[in-house]
Amino acid sequence: MTICLTLSPVAPDAATIARAATCLRDGGLVAFPTETVYGLGAHACDAVAVRRIFEAKGRPASDPLIVHVADVAQLGAVASHCPPEVARLAERFWPGPLTLVLPKGPSIPDDVTAGGPTVAVRIPAHLVAQALLRAAGVPVAAPSANLFSRPSPTCAGHVLHDLDGRIDMVLDGGDASVGVESTVLDLTTTPPCVLRPGAVTLEMLREVLPAVVPRLATASDAPLPSPGLLDRHYSPRAPLSLYQGLAPTRRAAMLRDAVRLSTGGMRLAILAPAAELAAFDAAGATRVVPLGPEQGLAVMAAALYAALRAADSPEIDAILAAGLEETGGLADAIRDRLRRAAAGRVLTCDS
Ligand code: TXA
Ligand code: MG
């Protein structure tokens, strides 16, 4: 049975936090809110507990986990060595949505790092996560608290949908504010490389470390620098096709396909800016879900995974999604997640 405990995201109840921390220290699995997405935590130095994470999520053991700590003082328990850039990055971006890949310390079991010599570390800003990490007093390994290859959870309801009965506890601290997972920056390579774009953007990182490069688009046969960067990640059950291009052309292509597919009997869900949804309703779509940049990219990022989950259900045969025109900044993170949700089905709609 999974216990769900609700607590204030700004003033979490100390007794509830203490209960969750005890559960973690005793080898239990506790899902908790962070500012990015909900994490599924286990004591990072307890290999048995860590293996339970992989079991609960159905995640392959080859995909390493991020270790969460409360503050920079705890880094020594996780990494064997911190290059000088860490202090500068920490001062600017921690606590917050940035994960650093560092050389692994001896107390972190191989199960956490998939046998690799490096470890990913993050100090989350969410006050529930902070309180839990402090009360636990141990590093906490935590991937996103979803079933493997499903969209990450941005609220406790998403966690329970995927993992009810498979984990010990969920701390419900409301909606995650950022909505996409942390930026992953590898500091063990020269130059340092962004393995996963997030809310700490390339532009922001370069203000501190000008040499940072984005991950190169890998040829399909090249070894993946991070196993979790597999293209088929975050994908909904119904196949999702992503339409890229300037709005008028992209909209026309989506409408044309929506009419053709729904006439052929397919039950479609549409993800598109709110102003376009009436046209897709008229085109025969079964479900329309607003998802667009009109209220700003931060609002779009926060809504992204809930929108993917809302579009996806057994009654839906296919999802058609409008891509972003914008590039750079947070747009890179949103484009990255949409592209992965599409698992290769990306249509470039040029006039
Ligand atoms: O925002 C986040 O990062 C959330 C919250 C819970 O902190 N966590 C999260 O974890 O997204 P997960 O496991 O879903 O994604 C971790 C990513 C994966 O792409 C994984 O391959 C990569 O980080 N990663 C972990 N350890 C790594 C390492 N040593 N080297 C390179 N990539 C690593
Ligand atoms: Mg994940």
List descriptors.
single chain, 351 residues, alpha/beta, DHBP synthase, Rossmann fold, 2 domains, eleven-stranded mixed β-sheet, five-stranded parallel β-sheet, 16 strands, globular, binds threonylcarbamoyladenylate, binds magnesium ion
Write the layout of secondary structure elements.
Blueprint: E1 3-6, H1 14-25, E2 30-32, E3 39-43, H2 47-57, E4 66-68, H3 85-93, E5 98-103, H4 110-113, E6 118-122, H5 127-136, E7 140-141, H6 156-163, E8 169-172, E9 183-186, E10 193-196, H7 202-208, E11 213-214, E12 240-244, H8 247-263, E13 268-272, H9 277-282, E14 287-290, H10 297-311, E15 318-322, H11 330-342, E16 346-348
Parallel strand pairs: 1-8, 2-8, 4-6, 5-9, 10-11, 12-15, 12-16, 13-14, 13-15
Antiparallel strand pairs: 2-3, 3-7, 4-7, 5-6, 9-10
The chain binds threonylcarbamoyladenylate (TXA) and magnesium ion (MG).
Threonylcarbamoyladenylate binds at residues 34, 36-37, 39, 63-66, 99, 101, 113, 116, 118-120, 122, 124, 142-144, 181-182, 184, 195-196, 226-229.
Mind explaining what this structure looks like?
The protein is α/β, with parallel strands linked by helices. The chain has 2 domains: 3-214, DHBP synthase (Alpha-Beta Complex), CATH 3.90.870; 240-349, Rossmann fold (3-Layer(aba) Sandwich). Helices cover 32% and strands 18% of the residues. It contains 11 helices and 16 strands. The chain has helices at 14-25, 47-57, 85-93, 110-113, 127-136, 156-163, 202-208, 247-263, 277-282, 297-311, 330-342, and strands spanning 3-6, 30-32, 39-43, 66-68, 98-103, 118-122, 140-141, 169-172, 183-186, 193-196, 213-214, 240-244, 268-272, 287-290, 318-322, 346-348. The strands form 2 sheets. An 11-stranded mixed β-sheet has the order 1-8-2-3-7-4-6-5-9-10-11, with helices on both faces. Strands 14-13-15-12-16 form a 5-stranded parallel β-sheet, sandwiched between helices. Helix 1 packs across helix 5 (127-136) and helix 10 runs parallel beside helix 11 (330-342). The protein is globular and about 60 Å long. The model is unreliable at 219-224 and 227-231 (pLDDT under 50). The structure holds threonylcarbamoyladenylate and magnesium ion (MG).
